[in-house]
Design a protein that fits this description.
This is ABC-2 type transport system ATP-binding protein. This protein has 311 residues and is an alpha/beta fold. It has two domains: 213 residues, P-loop containing nucleotide triphosphate hydrolases (Rossmann fold, 3-Layer(aba) Sandwich); 64 residues, no CATH class. 24% of the residues lie in helices and 29% in strands. It is built from seven helices and 14 strands. Helix 2 runs parallel beside helix 4 and helix 3 runs antiparallel to helix 4. The relative contact order is 0.15. Bound molecules: adenosine-5'-triphosphate.
Length: 311
């Protein structure tokens, strides 16, 4: 990730609610101009992280930087374009008696920087009627109004907590495509969370996996996929080649290892007699890490250029 502009950086971020640590020791860097899928099981800490990045919840420990500036509740980075954040929270508060057009007017009045054309074209793109009261819109259209409001605020980082849940599969794919295009065109970084792995197919180009409040993996999707293999062969305590075992499964005669590859060329095929090697699908990669809260072995971001970043 060296040389790339960093949009969001977490340094040992933790958040405690009473005795529960919702997030613990989270350290990661997210490059700018990406759509980052933040994935984790229920209760993994996604909403907590999104709210800290969105500046509505303080961290208990560590620091969270957006555009190089530390976030804090009430500070939305208005003065610094690189630190401007817009959050669409899970609850997505909208005034029920306001029409979508009223909500855009509200957005214009409450944001020092406001791009009305961007917000309106988003609503037009998804066929949201401007004159209907929000209380009478479908859940999917209400989600689109929240997205349009957030986009109109011209954020450098757009934080979307479970934005796809209320959308049908067609709208979900369209929203994902539009967000990728918005990120590419405007330089904006999008963080979107989900606990549904199937939702993620083709959605993000960068992945951040949370497990039990910890960030267990972060990196560009293609690099992460190229950096892992699944090996199947005769029952053995260890795989036949180098790498960090992320997951192992054994039957009486067979062993299957999911391995994070070391070295400079993740594409080098492993040739071992009796062993079959294949790449992981995105779903397999996510499921493996979501279920593996304590993946063994340090994997430093600077081990090799473009390496998957162990966080
Ligand atoms: N306000 C709160 N008070 C007490 N505990 C909380 C609070 N918010 C979150 N938690 C706890 O922190 C942990 C992480 O919650 P969080 O909502 O961040 O997870 P999540 O990954 O977003 O889950 P989900 O996918 O179910 O929305 C959970 O154990 C949750 O019970």
């Amino acid at each position: 990730m060296s040389g790339e502009r960093i949009a969001v950086e977490a340094r040992d971020v933790g958040r405690r609610f009473g005795r529960t640590w919702a997030l613990r020791d989270c350290t990661f860097r997210l490059p700018a101009q990406r759509v980052v899928a933040v994935v984790g099981a229920n209760g993994a800490g996604k909403s907590t992280l999104m709210n800290i990045v969105g500046g509505v919840l303080p961290a208990t420990t560590g620091s969270l930087l957006v555009g190089g500036r530390e976030t804090a509740p009430g500070r939305r980075g208005d003065g610094d374009p690189a630190a401007r954040v817009a959050l669409v929270a899970q609850s997505r508060p909208l005034y029920r008696d306001f029409s979508a057009a009223d909500m855009l007017r509200f957005g214009r009045h409450t944001n020092r920087l406001w791009d009305d054309g961007r917000a309106r074209s988003w609503l037009a793109r998804f066929g949201v009627p401007l004159d209907r009261r929000c209380g009478r819109l479908s859940a999917g259209h209400r989600a689109q109004v929240s997205l349009a409001l957030a986009l109109g605020a011209r954020p450098a980082v757009l934080v979307l907590d479970e934005p796809l849940a209320s959308l049908d599969p067609v709208a979900r794919a369209e929203v994902a495509g539009e967000l990728l295009a918005e990120a590419a065109d405007s330089g904006m970084t999008v963080m979107l969370s989900s606990h549904v792995v199937a939702e993620l197919s083709g959605v993000g180009d960068h992945l951040l996996i949370l497990s039990a409040g910890r960030a267990v993996l972060s990196g560009d999707v293609d690099v992460l996929l190229a950096g892992h293999v699944r090996l199947t062969g005769p029952r053995a305590p260890q795989p036949p080649g180098p790498g960090t075992v992320v997951h192992a499964r054994h039957t009486a005669r067979q062993s299957t290892f999911t391995v994070r590859l070391p070295g400079t060329d993740p594409h080098t095929p492993l040739v071992a007699p009796g062993w079959a090697t294949r790449p992981l699908t995105l779903e397999e990669l996510v499921v493996t890490y979501v279920r593996a809260p304590h993946v063994p072995g340090p994997h430093r971001p600077d081990e090799r250029p473009g390496a998957p970043e162990r966080v």
